[in-house]
Structures are given as C-alpha cells and as structure tokens.
Amino acid sequence: MSPEARSPLSPATTAVAAGRPARVQGAPVNEPVVLSSTYVSTGTPGAEMLYTRYDTETWHPLEEAVGALEGSSQPALVFSSGMAAIDAVLRLAAPGSAIVAPRHAYLATLTAAREQAAREGSVVREVDIADTAAVVAALAPADGPAASVLWVESPTNPMLEVADIPALAAAAHEAGALCVVDNTFATPLGQRPLAQGADVVVHSVTKYLAGHSDLVMGAAVTDVAGLRSRLHARRTTGGAIPGPFEAWLALRGLRTLALRVERSQASALELARRLDAHPLVAEVRHPGLPSHPQHERAASLMDGFGSILTLRPTGGPDAAEALTRDVRLWVPATSLGGVESSLERRRRLPAEAGTVPEDLLRLSVGIEDVEDLWEDLDRALRATAG
Ligand SMILES: *Cc1c(COP(=O)(O)O)cnc(C)c1O
C-alpha cells in the first residue's frame, strides 16, 4: 500500500515526514535555513516573501509539522516563546468578557490573563478544570460577564488534573466562547485537542516538541476559519517571532518526538509505580496510577499518561528541598520536557498557587535508563531521610 493510501499517517510518522522539501532530483532532504531580514521586491506586494517579521520560509517546515501533528489542515504559527503564543491567543478574548482558566494553569498564563483582563475590563474566573460541572457553571454565570475564552490545560501544571476536553469544548461553544487548550504537557502524541472540539491549541515548543532544553519557542494551531489570520496579524504587529536557527533546531528536535515521548512516559509510569510503594514517599501523582482522581478519564481521552509526575516526601518541605540537592543525575531546574530528567519544588517560586503543597516536587522524566533514574532518586530519598 502506498503511504498516501494509508493516510492519515500516525503522529510518530508525521513528526518525521512532515515539512520536507519537494522530492525532486538533487533536492535536499531538509529545508535550508534562510538568513535574510528582507526580500527582493518591487511594486505592489503579492503572496511572495517581503520581510521576515511577516513571514519567512525557514518557519514553514516546523509550522507544517506542528500543524499536521495537531491534526489541523492549516500550518501552525511559531512564536518567540510559548508565552508569546499564549499572549497572542489570549487577545482573542473580547473586552468586558470573562476568561475561564484552570487555577493550576501555567503561572505566566494566569498572569497574562489577569493583566489583560485588568486592561480590558474583563475578569479571569479560575476553576478546577477537572470539575466539568464547575467549569460549565463558570462559563455563563447569572452574576457576571459570560466567557469569551475557555482556557484549558490538561494535565495541569503541576497538579496534573485531567480535563474532559470534549465536554468542555462543547460547553464553551454552547456559551459562545472559544476553547483553547495548552497541549504542552500531553504533546500531540498524547492528546489531539482539535479533534476533541477545541478551537486553538498552544504549545511551549521549548518543552517536548524541541525536547533538548536548548531553545525557547512557542506555537499556536487552529483550524477555525479566520482565527489563524488574526493570530498571524498579532504576531506581525507584536513582533514576537523566532529566529531562523531556533526554528531549524526545534524541527530537528521534533523529528525524534515519538521516540523521546514513548521512552519518557514509559519510564514515568514505572517510576510512579515504584515511588508509590516507597516508604519515604507520602504521595505520588501521575495520571497513569489508578489512584489518580481522573485516571479513567485520562485512559479514555489520552494516548499514554505523559512524562510528568509529582511526589511528596514523608519529611515535608525541607526533605523535598534537600532532595533537589541530593540527586546527582536528576537536574534540579525549572522547565520540563527535555531529554534530561529534572525536578523542582514548585513552591520555591513565590508566585506558585497556594493550593500546591509546599512539599510537592514536580518530576520531568527524560530518556535516560530508568534504572539509573530510580537508583538516583532512591539513594537521594534515603540520604535526605538521614
Ligand atoms: C513552559 C510552559 C509555558 C510557557 O512557555 P515558554 O516557552 O516558557 O514561554 C506555557 N505553558 C506550559 C504548560 C508550559 O509548561
């Protein structure tokens, strides 16, 4: 069977095959990096390239690949960071309306939403995104403005709450709101929100898509007529564009997305199971554990359970902090989604939500050998306990 006859291709294949140059004799297999701020141009500009802040061909292979991975018929739009993409998408909210968002959304997303709401006479309603009835009630309450945007993160950061995206997208549309999903944690291999009814997907490409902790970038994907051009216009005016080398490097990272995610999520589940039985661990959270409150929902809506888990050591916040110093292989650092495993006590950040336990460590599992990861954690837990 020809590859065309089997389409749509699996995401693992799309990550490798999308965004390649046309197959003509002597063509390169990768698109070249174009280093030019402007293009030769006379008269009234047409569809050709004009100026790199508007568009440049070096973004296109990455935009095609990310758009295809999210199941959109339109290419993604890449931005200089995840937050630049999020800021552009938040501006789709109507002034004087409500933005409904998870109380455990990415911190800077909540900050950007609150700042925008204050400028525009809007409100941000923070909800438990796993509680579908509560989210639906927050979309159009009797005593406040109706929502124009429902912001979803699933699993959330760092509490790993899992949202019922199909139900939430349907409810958002019924209330006249757009449904946006930050798909950074799940990746398009784990979850395809557009197919579940969402209007826009955003990514911190910095994390899994690029995957090597060596660049900062964002992307937005939509299949809704008119929305991509509004986001494109916002990117052009705001000017939050990625450089050509970063776009090339992110695509290079994206080619191995499936291998990295398959490995890291298998290791995350194994580590979650072992840590769950560890005498020095009080609580483990991972959507793949039957003890997770939305385990069944994650099993039915996601492919795999992601590569993030959280743990709370029995010794409290001091033990959690000590663990980040006692590990030798795990890297103590913020961020996630790199090939290297990392961990962080989230409440060390003063702005982290007060509902996140003081002693909670967020672990981003990388692609190292799982036994090495386990031994390092087990040894550090014992060293911490004295
Ligand atoms: C890191 C992150 C962001 C922000 O992305 P940057 O690339 O750091 O700007 C947004 N959402 C989630 C879920 C993230 O993990």
Automatic annotation (TrEMBL):
GO terms for molecular function: cystathionine gamma-lyase activity; cystathionine gamma-synthase activity; homocysteine desulfhydrase activity; methionine gamma-lyase activity; pyridoxal phosphate binding. The keyword Transmembrane does not apply. The modification N6-(pyridoxal phosphate)lysine is found at K207. Residues 1-22 are annotated as: Disordered. One of its GO terms (biological process) is transsulfuration. The keyword Nuclease does not apply. Coiled coil: none annotated. This is homocysteine desulfhydrase. It comes from Georgenia soli.
